[in-house]
Amino acid sequence: MTRRGTAKSIFSAVIISAVAGLAIAATVLAGCGGGKPAADEGGAAPAQKPVLLVSAEKADVHPMKSEVRLLGKTVATRHVIIRSPTPGRIVGMKLVSGDSVRKGQVVAHVINREIEAAQAGLEVARKIEPNEADALAKSVGRYNHSVGIPVIAPEAGVVSQPPATSGQMVADLDTLVDLIDPASVYVEASVPVSQLSFVKSGMSATVTSAILPGIEMPARVGPMMPAFDATTASSAMRMDFVGAQRIAEAGAPVEIRVETASAPVAVVIPASALFQDPGADQYHVFVVGADGRAHRTVVKLGLRDPERVQVIAGIKAGDLVITSGGYALSDGLNVHVAQPAVAQKQSASKEQSGSGDQQ
Question: pTM for the complete prediction?
Answer without folding.
Answer: 0.56
